[in-house]
Amino acid sequence: MGTHVCRKQMLRWMWRWSVCPVAVRRGHMAFSSTQEPHQMGFSETQAKEMHEGATKSHGKHVPSVLTALLLLGLNPSSILKIMQKCPEVYSLKGADLQQRIDHLRKMGLVEGSLQRMISHYPKVMLLPVKRVNMVSRLLREKCLFTIHQVTDILRDSPEVLEEDLAQLEYKFQYAYFRMGVRQPEMVKAKLFRLPLSELRCRHCFLERRGRYQTPDKKGQTLILNPTLKDVLCVSEETYLTQVAMATAEEFHVFRKLMAREQEEEERENEYSSDEEDKDDDDDDGLHRSKRNTGYKKDRK
């Protein structure tokens, strides 16, 4: 059934809800059968699966959630796929979902982009507005991306919204300072789609083979570095044959070495942290000892 027809069905449904103000005011009208989703534009098979999913998730606001998704322009098939990917959506409140959708619109995610983002990464609907704002603020204030660039990052890499903020900032700093890459190129290469470990591995492999060089203060290098897009936005096979000029076996051995180096770094950091804590404890004990000695001396 087309989206236009679904919207007409939704208007009928919203009118039906208006005759039951108590249920609407309380915000919960659970599906009692497969008839409700079927009347909202879902096929009988889709309605059955939707009803089963709502029952398993104990969703009390499913009609209002489906209303928000249908009015967003998503068709029943797309909505069903979203629910299959992320069953937690059944447990949302329609009002909360609508608030989050409206907030994403305010951040510049227009029609088309917003639907693709939600279809690709439904978990974005579970994230509070506060969390989205925190990530957006970090990208703007700490990483100095423009508002438009932040919108592009959220559209292309919505997973960034769940990433640890310290790790997110470190990934930016690594690309900026170690690789000499600027913000527009990061956005173009979809930097934040890749884990930090993969970014470091691909970069360091090129660096140790003499195929990548950190630019100096003037942004100059003695060799021509590959673009970040050529490093990240290609398959491993293409990366090895066209960028690194190496074999899969060489890269596999290097991965193991990198993993071992990373483990050693983490152990050293933990040891340093423990030593600092011990020194702090010793200093505290020394200060307490001095205070106690002075106190006794004054008493005499």
TrEMBL record:
Keywords: Transit peptide. GO terms for molecular function: nucleic acid binding. It comes from the Eukaryota. Residues 262-300 are annotated as: Disordered. Residues 288-300 have a biased composition (Basic residues). Residues 262-284 have a biased composition (Acidic residues). Pfam families: mTERF. The keyword Transit peptide applies. Belongs to the mTERF family. This is Transcription termination factor 4, mitochondrial-like isoform X2. It comes from Carassius auratus (Goldfish). The lineage of its organism: Eukaryota, Metazoa, Chordata, Craniata, Vertebrata. The gene is LOC113045361.
